Each structure stands twice: as C-alpha cells, then as structure tokens.
Amino acid sequence: MAGAGAALAACGSSGPGGDSNSGGKAGTASYWFLTGQPGEGIRQTAAERFNKANPNNKLEFTAFENDAYKQKIKTAIGAGQAPTLIWGWGGGGLKSYVDAGQVEDLTGWFGENAAVKDRLFPSSFGPATVGGKIYAMPCETVQPIVLYYNKKVFEKAGAQPPQSFEEMMALVPTFKSKGIIPYSLAGKARWTNMMWLEFLLDRIGGPEVFQSVFDGQKDAWSNPAVLDMLTKIQQMVKDGAFGKGFSSVDAADNADQALLYTGKAAMMLHGGWTYGSMKNDGGDFVSGGNLGWMNFPPVTGGKGDPTNTVGNPGQYLAISSKATAEQKETAKKFFTSGVLDADETKAWINDGGSVPVAKGTEAILGASPDAAFLKYVYDTSVNAKVFAQSWDQALSPTAAEALLDNIAKLFQQQVSPQQWVTNMNQVIGK
C-alpha cells in the first residue's frame, strides 16, 4: 500500500540486474525486497549476516520501493528473468506464478525439513499453498485484523465488550443514544469496509466459502452464507452502526482511528498495524490503558470457528523455477538458517514493533513495553484454526478490483445483495 516510485537502491549488488542468471559465483542467489524502514534494514541485515556465514552461497540483494517492485517483479517473471528469491504476499499473486510454472514446488522440501516448517505459525502456510502444495516460505511478520474498543466509552455507557455478533448489534442503539458512533469506519477507503465482510463470512459460513472462490469454483459467491453476510452488512448501515458520514472518513489520514481514541466512536475493526499509530497519535489513549482489543466474536448458529482470524498471515519467499541448481540450493540454505533466525526475529519485535511468524518468541514479546498487545497478536495468530488472507491479496488483481468496487456499492446501498453476488460470480477465476 506504499506510494509509487522508482527503484531506490541496489544494496550490495555484484551483478547487473539481479536476475537469476546474473554474474558472480555459481551459488550466488539474487534476492529483491522492499525499501522502507524498519523492514528494509531488517531484511538487509539478515541477508548480510547470511552472506558472512556462507561465503560460498551468497545472496545478491536489491531493494525496491513498493509499487516499483510490483511492476518490476511482474515483468521479470513474465520474461523468465525473475530473481532466485521472489518476495511477495502469497495468495493470488503466487497462484499466478504457479499457474505459469515460474516457481518451485517446495512441498517435498518441507517434508524433508520438518523442523523448518514446525518453527513457523501453521496458519502462515495458507497463502503459501496452491492446490494443496506449498510454493513459498512464510517469513517476516503477521498482522491479523482486530476488533478494538474504547474502554472509557464502554464504561460510561455501562456496556460490556460483545461476546457475539448479536451483542455487537445490540450495542448499536446503546451508543447511538449517547451520540457516539458505534463502529468507526473509514468508508472512503474501500478495503477498510472489506474487513467486515471477511470476518462475517467466516463466522457465518466458515472458511470453506471463500476458499471455493479462491479455488475458482463456478458461482461460488452464490453460497447462502454470502447473502446472509451481505444482508447483515446492509442492515448495519441502515441502523447507523457506522455513523452518518462514514463514507467520507479517510483511512489515509487515520481519521477512523482518531474517532476511536477521542471517544467519538466506541469500536473499530482494523489491522494490527493501527496499534502503533494510535499509540503515537492518541496521547495517553494506549499508554493509559483505555484501548481494548479482541477477536471478532461468533455469529449464533454460524459454522466458523471463533479462533479463526483474517488479515496478513505473513510475507512470502518463493524460489524461481528458472534459477540454477546452485542458486536454488543457496535459497534453501537461507530458508534453513537465515530466515527468521534469532537475530532477525528479535529485530522484528524490538525494531519493527511486530510479531514474527516464528513460534517460541513469548519471552522476547513479554519484555516489550507493548507486551500485552503483542502477546494477543501472537496467541491469535498461532492458535487460529484458519488465518485467512485479506481478500484483495488472495484474489487476482482483476477480481480484487471488482471486489472492492462492489463492496463500496454495497455499503452505499447501490447494489442489492443478490446483485452483488451476480457481479462477483462473473469475475471468479479471472
């Protein structure tokens, strides 16, 4: 979601373009990743540490700004000149690489290296899996979507955190009667609305419903759980659950977060990444203990497991099928000894303020000033039966654009639930 720009830096690059067939020793593997601190520094330091320990299996790394990277990696893969290590978000993008035969099947390798797989969150492997086979190594951090609430607002209203979706809806008139927006929502940004659909569909129909969409099954959106979810969303809008002017609230300037920490809204469904910005911008809202958080509660009679979550289960490293045998060996050695080693894991926690997708970090997380929230993110992520990837990342770019467009129309009451289903069925598999 970062801005546009050109390639920013070529860090430690010893060959021309960093593609799989660039110069250097036979075992040198090319690796492209994103700029922007603290992530860029953590990635670079991890690669340098690996190079120092493996002089005969080095990584040649290059950093690109977000949008420039997306374009360059797409072009390189299309030309059969991808870097050895392909950094990405898994899901729809990875599936397109798999369909084109551009990435290695790692299922057997993970079977032979069970210890590597066992030290990562099981839920992080969902977006790395296509057709039941693993095509990427989960790496970096996890960011589930969280239901936040303002404890002070709840206390003043004499309300308790909701334990079911029905209780969530029952709180709407309670807060409206006091002039408080029940749920802060930056409706100007379409993807923020999407988080409500993701959780509701899981809680009503279970993860299999969206999985069938991802798998490209014909008319998968016609599942009755989808109509139920869409109907509930439009009822929330009609009931004023998001306030009257939610469609003009902008996520780009964190206006939705401000409504929560100033007490103008009672709750907010948003990504784990908003914790840090609320801590920075909200005065003593976080440090004073007024921020509460929880997983999205169950829907009565729903099929979804209440431990399930949605969001970003991790980032991913695939291996180019066009790389040489030596380069592939270097990449796999990096998976074994470099990715999320002890130093990198600490860096993501202490410098990045995030939870790595590695198990066994409770002690480091517990020493953080944000220990309570980080432990919640860790527990939610590691215990989730299913950690569903954000829909706009899981689907192809074509289907994702149609999804976001129809979600905006749904919240504005411009399409009926049935029209929404019809529109979305038309782009399944595209």
UniProtKB/TrEMBL annotation:
PANTHER family attached to this UniProt entry: ARABINOSE-BINDING PROTEIN-RELATED, BLR3389 PROTEIN
Domain of life: Bacteria
InterPro entries: Bact_solute-bd_prot1, SBP
Organism: Actinoplanes digitatis
A Pfam cross-reference name: SBP_bac_1
Protein's name in the database: Raffinose/stachyose/melibiose transport system substrate-binding protein
